[in-house]
Amino acid sequence: MNNLRKSNIRKLPKGTFDTLIIGGGINGAVAAAALAAKGVKVALIDKGDFAGFTSSNSSNLAWGGIKYLESYEYGLVNKLCKSRNHLMRSYPSTVKEIRFLTSIQKGFRFPPAFIYMGTLLYWVMGRLFTKMPNYLTGGKIKSLENVVNTQNVTGGFEYSDAYLQDNDARFVFNFIRSSMSYGCIAANYVESLGSTRKDDTWVTKAKDGITGEEFEITSKVLINAAGPFVDPLNDLNEEKTDHHHVFSKGIHLIVDKVTDSNKVLTFFADDGRLFFVIPMGPKTCIGTTDTQVENPYAHVTEADRQFVLDNVNKLLALDKPLTKDDVIAERCGVRPLAIKGTGGKADWVQLSRKHAIDQNAQHKYMSIFGGKLTDCINVGDEVAGIVKEFGIDLPYADFKWYGEPDDTVRDEFFHRAKLMNFDALTPTTSSEPLTSRFWRRYGRNAINMLEAIRENPNKAELLIENSEYLRVEIEHAAQREMVTKLEDFLRRRSKISLVVRQEDILAAPGLREACEILFGNEAEAKLQEYITSVRKDVSPAEDVIA
């Protein structure tokens, strides 16, 4: 059914691309979007799904790096605050200001008033772009947020940063979708088997992970944006770099909403690291851990899970403690941290998420290390500048490649939505009006989706309860979002599998119909593939959703 993917894979071996990007996480996605919009002939492949690894396991926060003030990285904080503000201006419906309510326990290494002074400095470094911080007594914290356990709290404060209204993977995919709209040939589940230099070009042997077919992609420039897999890919391509990665594992647990206030509750966990209770629509996301691991294939351990549960139960005054049974879903990923030199030793606490781009101008090869969502626009612009230095023409070098459509498009969508009383169709389980959600997720494409619903009201049906996805959205995903496996849709194009329990997804009467929309005659096979992957204890032969 996935005609877009099949069509793009047929195009990959044809001709010579200006640039091949390997990796479809946030770094590869913004590189593709920036280059394609500026007129560069771009190809992008990922051995898994787009945003399939680190970029779909973040805290969904776009923040200016307040924690780096403690390590005196004022330049980094200044840059990240500037990037955060730019992101908020560019994506007003997606990257929004949110208040962080921080509680300081008695005996903490700094008194609350001292840390509050740091939030004032942070606010000033953020160009006063957000609301001013407030100092709070323990009693004031309790009155503002009754769920916080203030028995051992000596004070705290409230300050602002930003968060992603939807989810990180969706945000990343919209850059991929944008790059394809500008002519990028992108395909997921296509693995690089290695690249070699031939006649001043790169020849990359690639393999379709679905069919097993192998083919070659020729490009003038090669960009290694493989996230946590940058180092092994460089080894495969025999490219030496100044930087390499070390990994920090972070996990989050998602539970039913613990408070109705739309604030991030911030604490310092038992190990002294920041610990968040983050709103996630109808749910709450709790974490994170920060554990050094040797390789990217991290998983949630019993100790990780218990660490998060122990801390949240101690820090919140819940009616009853959260247990493993309350966990709806788990997120686990590694933060690739850029470190210079060949050794693996570094002051773990001092390592930051700043990115580094190593380049070999002679070979027209670059590797992107580290990075985070907050700084993504800078990464895209920086990559475009380096590609130009490599001698690749950027016909539309000054074209603005990021941001939401302009106000005329927005006003047209909201006017049409109002005329058809679109918000009246909002399901009772939805956490926001349909107009807001459609504009944020689909931009100008939302106008066509309105027309589809106007012509056929059945397209406004909710197929999976509590999913916040209408039939028309699933049809749009089938046509334009390169959904190759059911997990791609449930976990990354949407956040259904993060906010709906697995057993409820599998029991949903509309799941099979959603599969038919997404995969056509492959629907049953794709459904059983998903069941096998998430329910190892269930035989694929069992019809668990009949």
Automatic annotation (TrEMBL):
Residues in Alpha-glycerophosphate oxidase C-terminal domain copies: 433-509
Family of this protein: Belongs to the FAD-dependent glycerol-3-phosphate dehydrogenase family.
Cofactors: FAD
Record key words, sorted: FAD, Flavoprotein, Membrane, Oxidoreductase, Transmembrane, Transmembrane helix
The organism of origin for this protein: Paraglaciecola mesophila
Protein name per UniProt: FAD-dependent oxidoreductase
Residue ranges of domain FAD dependent oxidoreductase in the record: 18-337
InterPro entries: DAO_C (IPR031656), DAO_C_sf (IPR038299), FAD-dep_OxRdtase (IPR006076), FAD/NAD-bd_sf (IPR036188), G3P_DH_FAD-dep (IPR000447)
Transmembrane segments: 108-125
Keyword Flavoprotein listed: yes
Coiled coil regions, renumbered to chain: none
